[in-house]
Amino acid sequence: QVQLVESGGGLVQTGGSLRLSCAASGLTFSGSNMAWFRQAPGKEREFVGAIGWIGDTYYADSVKGRFTISRDNAKNTVYLQMNSLKPEDTAVYFCAADRKTYVRGTYYYTEPQTYDCWGQGTQVTVSS
């Protein structure tokens, strides 16, 4: 059974930083593409960033330059470093895994249907 457990969410002031972690088990982590999505109340889930199994990274325009996704295969963990946080970053952040070891195009990384495993989410609230 695949399990993704997010942690690191919380309340932070505008301009602050948080680092989210996603611990994975039950899959071949080093061979999986990993991603972060977020969902704010009343809005659809949106792509935040992804890191392929070969280490390539992709970001939504709204977070590029502020957020950094990384992975530590030895710890089966993917991270999302979030800097210069804004109130509009407030959302539940979800970790997702794509267990297909494809070198995917950008379109595939940004689509929720690409990912077959999801975590429970962690709340990030940025106060103004």
Q: What do these coordinates show?
A:
The chain has 128 residues and is mostly beta strands. The chain is built from one helix and eleven strands; from the N terminus they run E-E-E-E-E-E-E-E-E-H-E-E. A hairpin with a 4-residue loop joins strand 7 (67-72) and strand 8 (77-82). The protein is globular, with a radius of gyration of 13 Å.
Give a short overview.
By secondary structure, the chain is mainly beta. It is built from one helix and eleven strands, in the order βββββββββαββ. It is globular.
Separation, N- and C-terminal Cα atoms: 40 Å
Number of helices: 1
**Helix/strand class:** mainly beta
Helix content: under 10%
Work out the strand percent: over 45%
Order of helices and strands: EEEEEEEEEHEE
Major sheet, described briefly? Answer: 7 strands, mixed
Count the strands?
11
Oligomer: single chain
| Low-pLDDT residue intervals, each spanning 5 or more residues | none
- Which overall shape is indicated by the principal axes computed on the Cα atoms? globular
What's the average pLDDT?
96
Rg to the nearest angstrom? 13 Å
Record keyword descriptors for this entry.
single chain, 128 residues, mainly beta, 7-stranded mixed beta sheet, 4-stranded antiparallel beta sheet, 1 helix, 3% helix, globular
